[in-house]
What we know:
With about 350 residues, the protein is of the alpha+beta class.
Amino acid sequence: MSFSQKILEWYYIHKRDLPWRSTTDPYKIWLSEIMLQQTRVAQGMPYYHKFLENFPTVQDLASAPEEKVLKLWQGLGYYSRARNLHATAKMVVVDYNGNFPNTYKELKALKGVGDYTASAIASICFDIPEPVVDGNVYRVLSRYFGVDLPINSTQGIKYFKDLAREVMDVKNIRDYNQGIMEFGAMQCAPKSPNCESCPLNTSCVALKEIRVSQLPVKINKTKIRQRYFNYLVYLDKDNRTILEQRQGKGIWQNLYQFPLLETENLVGHKELTQILNGNLKDSTNKVAMYNKEPIVHKLSHQHLHTRFWILEMDELNSKAIPWEKVHNYPVPVLLADFIKTFKI
DNA sequence: AAAGCGGGGTC
DNA sequence: GACCCAGCTTT
């Protein structure tokens, strides 16, 4: 039996019943695929339901304010996905009259849709024989065929895409593509896969050569930047505070936060007030350190050593917002956790 | 080709 | 701690 037939047989027995598996609606498939980029099914699932409730159609999503999209996305990470999701919804409504394009090329031209996602939508929605290559597929193919080309090198990416195309089942691309991904997630797991019960264990090169734990090969060395954040939580006598929207290129683009003072190192009360002194308003009554032990918020390539400072004010300008409204704004998890625990 | 981009689960 | 997750975009 061929590789693809074994995958399909395994899939029909072991497939999970996931909500996006019972539809070929491009809107729902696209939504699920964007959400699941670099994200586990369990983490993305509640967001998928939440988005469909709030935005039943692509028109609903397109006509929503970006702030609402970001708020619903809050906690899922990689927020460019939410911004691109919104932009693509508008493009589909305006340029495609509300109907998603049905070719790989047009799909890939949509914002936030790369090679993987275009292939996934094309195959699942339109039965186009285009192989998907995600993290699961890299793992399955590299092990089964014993390929040690780095999966994140230019050569490796092309090699595995070509290999995936050779071994795919063009007659049943929908199930095959989802099957090989599911197989990678459930059976050919990253750590201690269950090779004993694997239907491919008689022909798997990595198993035969005892290289399962060494494949796939990945070259990466993301060095982590240490940053020191001081969030200035202003509070006036009416319990109003200041929130700003993050601008520019870095993390958390377009999300909201308290005014941020970033320093080169951890600073104490004295240094902070010295730095602030030039800008400190006369109406500042008290500056209090909220957390003595800095909170270390860990991102993929940054560790954010964070202190919150409470600045009691006589008055704030007219842009101040009541504390009860703070929870309406999209904020990073770091701030959401603080807001949750902080009692006025 | 390499870096930047979140947050959470698992071992 | 290290690694990974239905990757994409920018530099």
